[in-house]
Amino acid sequence: MPDHIEPAEFAEHCRFLNSDALYDAGMTPGEKRSTPFPVAQLALTMPSFDVDCFSWEAHILVSERLRRTMALPGEIVDYFPVDASASSATPRSLNYMIMSVAVTESISRAGLGDPFIYEPESIDIRAVPQFPLFRDEQYLGSMFCSDAMAVSVLESGCTGVRFIAPESRDFIRPMRYRTLRGLEEDAGWDENGERRPTLLVEAVS
Fold first, then answer.
1. Where would I find the H helices in 50-202?
2. Beta strand segments in 107-189, E
3. pLDDT by residue (tens digit) across 66-117?
4. What is the pTM of this model?
């Protein structure tokens, strides 16, 4: 979530009015849905909320701007309608839909890693993906994308999306992520509670 959004305030002002129906319908990551999915009734009553992508109750919501930027065909993602009539004007104007990534690839090396625990060492970072956005067959809970997709979204200015390097997703090593400058490393916070400038690890010409 971008720094200007206070997580506690967001959690207080976001809910699905038909949460139970969405839960009962279920969602299987990495597969095309063959049965109807309820229209999510989103009540996001935070007037300043203008984020293009966020997750709520295990569902990923994406704005019209982000969908247009990614330009993903129907065989890669499913989009499900959202009724935001109970939301504030700004989030309502973003025309959110729920996104489900419907394809998988195998970029985790066989025999390495626990299928229930994400282990960065098992990911082949040299793999060339077939799809611009996908889930890994072993780690269905994580989404991966091509570098070209990351750059396209970054250039668009869409918010709420961070492209974390697979090798730094164990929350032990410093987090590294793709930016328009290249690969940057999170430098944490200073003694005054201010975020330190990120460190450029690998520049992209």
1. 64-70, 89-93, 147-156
2. 133-136, 143-145, 163-164, 176-178, 182-185
3. 999 999 999 999 999 999 999 999 999 999 999 999 999 988 765 555 555 5
4. 0.88
Is 57 in a helix, a strand, or coil? coil
Q: Token pair of 11, please?
A: 């959690």
Helix (H) or strand (E) holding 8: helix 7-12
84-89 long-range Cβ contacts below 8 angstroms, 24+ apart: 84/42, 84/44, 86/17, 86/41, 86/42, 86/43, 86/45, 87/42, 87/43, 87/44, 87/45, 88/44, 88/45, 88/46, 88/47, 88/49, 89/47
Residue 145 tokens read as: 């994308």
Residues 80 and 19: their CA atoms lie apart, in Å, by 15
Amino acid present at 72: L
CA 57 to chain centroid: 13
